[in-house]
Design a protein that fits this description.
By secondary structure, the protein is an alpha/beta fold. It is 38% helix and 21% strand. The chain has a five-stranded mixed β-sheet, sandwiched between helices. The chain has a three-stranded parallel β-sheet with strand order 5-6-7.
Protein backbone atom coordinates (compact mmCIF):
# COMPACT_ATOMS: atom_id res chain seq x y z
CA UNK A 1 0.00 0.00 0.00
CA UNK A 2 1.36 3.42 -0.94
CA UNK A 3 1.54 5.81 1.98
CA UNK A 4 0.29 9.41 1.58
CA UNK A 5 2.80 12.06 0.63
CA UNK A 6 4.38 13.50 3.81
CA UNK A 7 3.48 17.00 4.90
CA UNK A 8 6.00 19.76 5.52
CA UNK A 9 7.48 18.24 8.63
CA UNK A 10 10.67 20.12 9.33
CA UNK A 11 11.59 20.50 13.02
CA UNK A 12 10.57 24.17 12.83
CA UNK A 13 7.06 23.31 11.55
CA UNK A 14 6.21 20.64 14.10
CA UNK A 15 3.87 21.87 16.81
CA UNK A 16 4.88 21.43 20.43
CA UNK A 17 3.14 18.17 21.24
CA UNK A 18 1.96 16.20 24.26
CA UNK A 19 0.82 12.59 23.97
CA UNK A 20 -1.79 10.70 25.97
CA UNK A 21 -1.59 6.94 25.43
CA UNK A 22 -2.83 3.63 26.73
CA UNK A 23 -0.16 1.59 28.51
CA UNK A 24 -0.45 -1.03 25.75
CA UNK A 25 1.35 1.36 23.34
CA UNK A 26 3.69 2.94 25.90
CA UNK A 27 6.74 0.95 24.77
CA UNK A 28 6.39 1.79 21.08
CA UNK A 29 5.34 5.43 21.47
CA UNK A 30 8.11 6.10 23.98
CA UNK A 31 10.64 4.58 21.59
CA UNK A 32 9.63 6.69 18.57
CA UNK A 33 9.15 9.86 20.62
CA UNK A 34 12.84 9.82 21.56
CA UNK A 35 13.62 11.01 18.04
CA UNK A 36 11.59 14.23 18.42
CA UNK A 37 12.38 17.30 20.49
CA UNK A 38 8.90 18.72 19.84
CA UNK A 39 7.33 16.00 22.05
CA UNK A 40 7.11 17.73 25.42
CA UNK A 41 5.31 15.18 27.53
CA UNK A 42 3.85 11.66 27.45
CA UNK A 43 1.02 10.69 29.78
CA UNK A 44 0.13 7.00 30.18
CA UNK A 45 -3.26 5.67 31.24
CA UNK A 46 -3.80 2.16 32.57
CA UNK A 47 -4.66 -0.66 30.20
CA UNK A 48 -8.27 -1.83 30.13
CA UNK A 49 -10.13 1.48 30.20
CA UNK A 50 -11.83 0.54 26.91
CA UNK A 51 -13.89 -1.85 29.05
CA UNK A 52 -15.34 1.18 30.85
CA UNK A 53 -15.64 3.80 28.05
CA UNK A 54 -17.04 6.52 30.31
CA UNK A 55 -14.01 6.19 32.59
CA UNK A 56 -11.64 6.27 29.62
CA UNK A 57 -13.31 9.46 28.40
CA UNK A 58 -13.18 11.04 31.86
CA UNK A 59 -9.52 10.17 32.47
CA UNK A 60 -8.39 11.27 29.02
CA UNK A 61 -10.31 14.56 29.30
CA UNK A 62 -8.74 15.16 32.70
CA UNK A 63 -5.27 14.81 31.18
CA UNK A 64 -6.17 17.02 28.21
CA UNK A 65 -7.28 19.77 30.59
CA UNK A 66 -4.15 19.27 32.71
CA UNK A 67 -1.80 19.47 29.74
CA UNK A 68 -3.46 22.63 28.44
CA UNK A 69 -3.17 24.20 31.87
CA UNK A 70 0.40 23.19 32.65
CA UNK A 71 2.27 23.29 29.33
CA UNK A 72 2.64 25.40 26.20
CA UNK A 73 1.74 22.43 24.00
CA UNK A 74 0.10 23.32 20.71
CA UNK A 75 -1.19 19.82 19.94
CA UNK A 76 -2.31 16.82 21.98
CA UNK A 77 -2.02 13.41 20.35
CA UNK A 78 -4.13 10.49 21.55
CA UNK A 79 -2.42 7.09 21.51
CA UNK A 80 -5.85 5.52 21.18
CA UNK A 81 -8.36 4.58 18.53
CA UNK A 82 -12.10 4.73 18.97
CA UNK A 83 -11.66 2.14 21.77
CA UNK A 84 -15.27 1.14 22.50
CA UNK A 85 -16.23 4.78 21.82
CA UNK A 86 -14.29 5.86 24.90
CA UNK A 87 -12.58 8.65 22.97
CA UNK A 88 -15.81 9.93 21.45
CA UNK A 89 -16.65 13.37 22.85
CA UNK A 90 -13.11 14.38 23.84
CA UNK A 91 -12.22 18.01 23.13
CA UNK A 92 -9.67 20.74 23.77
CA UNK A 93 -9.92 24.41 24.65
CA UNK A 94 -6.85 25.75 22.79
CA UNK A 95 -4.75 22.86 21.40
CA UNK A 96 -5.18 20.81 18.27
CA UNK A 97 -6.39 17.29 19.14
CA UNK A 98 -5.05 14.46 16.99
CA UNK A 99 -6.25 10.85 16.77
CA UNK A 100 -5.65 8.08 14.26
CA UNK A 101 -8.52 6.66 12.24
CA UNK A 102 -8.51 3.38 14.15
CA UNK A 103 -10.90 1.20 16.09
CA UNK A 104 -8.22 0.17 18.61
CA UNK A 105 -4.50 -0.13 19.27
CA UNK A 106 -3.97 -3.07 16.91
CA UNK A 107 -4.35 -0.72 13.93
CA UNK A 108 -1.46 1.34 15.32
CA UNK A 109 0.73 -1.76 15.47
CA UNK A 110 -0.24 -3.12 12.05
CA UNK A 111 0.30 0.30 10.48
CA UNK A 112 -3.05 1.03 8.84
CA UNK A 113 -6.79 0.53 9.18
CA UNK A 114 -6.76 -1.20 5.79
CA UNK A 115 -4.30 -3.88 6.88
CA UNK A 116 -6.29 -4.42 10.06
CA UNK A 117 -9.56 -4.82 8.14
CA UNK A 118 -7.97 -7.21 5.64
CA UNK A 119 -6.46 -9.37 8.37
CA UNK A 120 -9.63 -9.79 10.44
CA UNK A 121 -11.62 -10.48 7.27
CA UNK A 122 -9.28 -13.35 6.41
CA UNK A 123 -9.00 -14.58 10.02
CA UNK A 124 -12.23 -13.91 11.93
CA UNK A 125 -11.93 -15.04 15.51
CA UNK A 126 -8.48 -13.52 16.06
CA UNK A 127 -7.38 -12.61 19.58
CA UNK A 128 -4.42 -10.22 19.53
CA UNK A 129 -1.29 -10.40 21.67
CA UNK A 130 1.56 -7.84 21.69
CA UNK A 131 4.45 -6.84 23.97
CA UNK A 132 2.25 -4.22 25.64
CA UNK A 133 -0.77 -6.48 25.98
CA UNK A 134 1.34 -9.31 27.42
CA UNK A 135 2.92 -6.94 29.92
CA UNK A 136 -0.16 -5.09 31.13
CA UNK A 137 -3.02 -7.57 30.81
CA UNK A 138 -3.85 -11.06 32.03
CA UNK A 139 -4.13 -12.65 28.60
CA UNK A 140 -6.13 -15.81 27.84
CA UNK A 141 -3.78 -18.52 29.05
CA UNK A 142 -3.35 -21.50 31.35
CA UNK A 143 -1.98 -19.19 34.06
CA UNK A 144 -5.00 -16.92 33.88
CA UNK A 145 -7.36 -19.89 34.08
CA UNK A 146 -5.60 -21.38 37.09
CA UNK A 147 -5.38 -18.06 38.95
CA UNK A 148 -9.05 -17.30 38.37
CA UNK A 149 -10.14 -20.81 39.33
CA UNK A 150 -8.16 -20.69 42.57
CA UNK A 151 -9.73 -17.34 43.44
CA UNK A 152 -13.24 -18.68 42.81
CA UNK A 153 -12.61 -21.80 44.90
CA UNK A 154 -11.49 -19.65 47.83
CA UNK A 155 -14.52 -17.37 47.53
CA UNK A 156 -17.32 -19.71 46.45
CA UNK A 157 -16.22 -23.32 46.92
CA UNK A 158 -15.12 -25.89 44.35
CA UNK A 159 -18.52 -26.79 42.86
CA UNK A 160 -19.46 -23.16 42.29
CA UNK A 161 -15.99 -22.44 40.94
CA UNK A 162 -16.38 -25.12 38.28
CA UNK A 163 -19.68 -23.60 37.15
CA UNK A 164 -18.35 -20.04 37.16
CA UNK A 165 -15.30 -21.02 35.13
CA UNK A 166 -17.47 -22.81 32.58
CA UNK A 167 -19.59 -19.68 32.18
CA UNK A 168 -16.62 -17.31 32.10
CA UNK A 169 -14.58 -19.30 29.60
CA UNK A 170 -17.49 -19.61 27.19
CA UNK A 171 -16.38 -16.53 25.27
CA UNK A 172 -13.15 -18.32 24.30
CA UNK A 173 -15.21 -20.33 21.82
CA UNK A 174 -15.66 -17.19 19.70
CA UNK A 175 -11.92 -17.21 18.94
CA UNK A 176 -9.74 -19.55 16.92
CA UNK A 177 -6.49 -17.62 16.38
CA UNK A 178 -3.88 -16.08 18.68
CA UNK A 179 -1.86 -13.52 16.75
CA UNK A 180 1.25 -11.88 18.15
CA UNK A 181 1.99 -8.51 16.54
CA UNK A 182 5.11 -6.45 17.21
CA UNK A 183 7.23 -3.65 15.79
CA UNK A 184 10.63 -4.98 16.84
CA UNK A 185 10.75 -2.61 19.81
CA UNK A 186 11.85 -4.28 23.06
CA UNK A 187 10.61 -7.65 21.79
CA UNK A 188 12.07 -10.95 22.96
CA UNK A 189 11.52 -14.53 21.83
CA UNK A 190 9.83 -15.02 25.20
CA UNK A 191 6.99 -12.73 24.10
CA UNK A 192 6.36 -14.75 20.96
CA UNK A 193 6.79 -18.10 22.71
CA UNK A 194 4.31 -17.07 25.40
CA UNK A 195 1.65 -16.35 22.77
CA UNK A 196 2.35 -19.68 21.06
CA UNK A 197 2.00 -21.49 24.40
CA UNK A 198 -1.32 -19.73 25.06
CA UNK A 199 -2.58 -20.72 21.61
CA UNK A 200 -1.59 -24.35 22.15
CA UNK A 201 -3.35 -24.53 25.52
CA UNK A 202 -6.50 -22.86 24.17
CA UNK A 203 -6.58 -25.01 21.05
CA UNK A 204 -6.17 -21.97 18.79
CA UNK A 205 -3.87 -21.57 15.81
CA UNK A 206 -0.86 -19.26 16.22
CA UNK A 207 0.33 -16.49 13.94
CA UNK A 208 3.16 -13.96 14.20
CA UNK A 209 2.76 -10.65 12.39
CA UNK A 210 5.57 -8.13 12.06
CA UNK A 211 3.81 -4.78 12.28
CA UNK A 212 4.47 -1.58 10.38
CA UNK A 213 5.70 1.44 12.38
CA UNK A 214 4.57 3.97 9.76
CA UNK A 215 1.36 5.00 11.51
CA UNK A 216 2.94 5.46 14.95
CA UNK A 217 5.94 7.28 13.47
CA UNK A 218 3.64 9.66 11.63
CA UNK A 219 1.51 10.18 14.71
CA UNK A 220 4.46 11.04 16.93
CA UNK A 221 6.31 12.95 14.20
CA UNK A 222 3.45 15.28 13.29
CA UNK A 223 2.73 13.92 9.81
CA UNK A 224 -1.07 14.01 10.21
CA UNK A 225 -2.54 13.45 6.76
CA UNK A 226 -6.33 13.27 6.48
CA UNK A 227 -6.37 9.66 5.28
CA UNK A 228 -4.86 8.34 8.49
CA UNK A 229 -5.70 10.97 11.11
CA UNK A 230 -8.35 13.33 12.34
CA UNK A 231 -7.04 16.71 13.49
CA UNK A 232 -9.58 18.60 15.59
CA UNK A 233 -9.63 22.32 16.29
CA UNK A 234 -10.62 23.65 19.72
CA UNK A 235 -14.39 23.46 19.99
CA UNK A 236 -14.60 20.30 17.89
CA UNK A 237 -15.08 16.79 19.22
CA UNK A 238 -14.67 13.17 18.06
CA UNK A 239 -17.60 11.22 16.62
CA UNK A 240 -17.86 7.69 15.24
CA UNK A 241 -18.74 7.25 11.56
CA UNK A 242 -20.43 4.31 9.88
CA UNK A 243 -17.85 4.03 7.11
CA UNK A 244 -14.17 3.39 6.48
CA UNK A 245 -13.17 6.76 7.98
CA UNK A 246 -13.91 5.29 11.45
CA UNK A 247 -14.10 8.71 13.16
CA UNK A 248 -14.66 12.33 12.24
CA UNK A 249 -14.46 15.81 13.75
CA UNK A 250 -17.72 17.62 14.51
CA UNK A 251 -18.57 20.91 16.15
CA UNK A 252 -19.39 20.50 19.83
CA UNK A 253 -23.14 20.74 20.33
Amino acid sequence: MNQPEPQNNSPESRPRTAIITCAVLEIEIGHFAKEHDHVLRIEVLEQGLHNTPDKLRSEAQRLIDQIEGETDAEAIVLGYGLCSRGTEGLKTRRCKLVIARAHDCITHLLGSKERYAEYVKERPGTYWYSPGWNQHCSMPSKERYETTYKSYVEKFGEDNAEYLMEMEQGWFKKYSHATFVELGVQVTEKDKDYTRECADWLGWSFDHQRGDPALLKAMVGGDWDDDRFVVLDPGQTIRITADERVIEAVEES
